[in-house]
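step: validate -> pass
step: tokenize input -> pass
step: predict -> running
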Amino acid sequence: MHIGALACALLAAGTARACTTFVLESTNHVYFGRNLDWFSEDGLVIMNPGQVQKSAIVMSGSSPAKWVSKYGSVTFNSGGWELPSGGMNEAGLVVECMWLNETQYPAPDSRAALNSLQWIQYQLDNCQTVEEVIATDQKVRVETGGLRAPQHYLACDAAGNCAVIEYLNGKTVCYRGRQLLCPALANEPYEAAATDAKLHPTPGDLGKKLSGDPHFWRFERAAARVAAFRSGTPRENLDYAFGVLQEVSENDTVWRLVYDVTARQIHYRTLSHPAVRTLDLKKMDFACHLPVQFFDLHPPSGVVEQPKFGELSEAKYLQYLRRYLAQDWAKQQFGDMTPFIEPMLLNLRNERCTEQPASR
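step: predict -> pass
step: emit ->
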């Protein structure tokens, strides 16, 4: 599917936002923390079914990746259907993106193309392990979609294996295993951030802001808290993860997510609703014969209810897109995006359920 520059526009902006991710391992659980720092807390939480035929949203002239989703997933999407900032699938794979100004995506080649947000959905649809995520680089490449949306990614699977994936100087760079000194990521190249963190060891008082380069302080703080983590009860571990998110938060944090990867649960809080709410993937039906399910993370009425999924109809999706794109910050950052609304709706209309389950 060729929809030009649309996909990446919806998380692109002239100024990077200060997002942070990290992974904690307890004695028997893996936790993945994520702050989203953005202009608006608007977003859709989407239940993505398995066994669905898909085609990538790419620039005209590119060959779009095509696939059938193997796994169902839950994603947090500010831009809309198939354009997540991150999420977790039913196999326990979590993928989240961070802004990285230094990103340079690969030049066009024989591989099929994906935009930088749908790359996340592709991984959640197709992969169970971090090793499988890394291997997809042989088959697909990331492109900008025509607008500046430089991303890098932190991925973690149910076994606690993690990887940072970046695109520097047009090449894929991956840190995993012993190369990944700390499973954390902010808005600097991983190697530079990890090197700086080693130069500024953990202070005795973790409540104080670190004294290193201010460009690296959120990574340093996350790395320090990961190193200091000691497993407790599930409640204590969850509170610790949210505490780390609080410490690395800046003024524009709108979502805080903690994935309990082992339990397949997502705990989240938003700027306007600070109480923690929970999604349990084990209780969800990801069968593709059902309509796409969603709920609005920030309903316009301001009334926040417990999570309740409903059908993502074209009318409801159109209502969300119009509201999202009408915001002053969106107009200033993106200009007039109304010509892209119809192509976005086309993406939802083209969802197709397969008759046979995809091979796992």
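step: describe -> The longest strand covers residues 30-37.
step: cleanup -> pass
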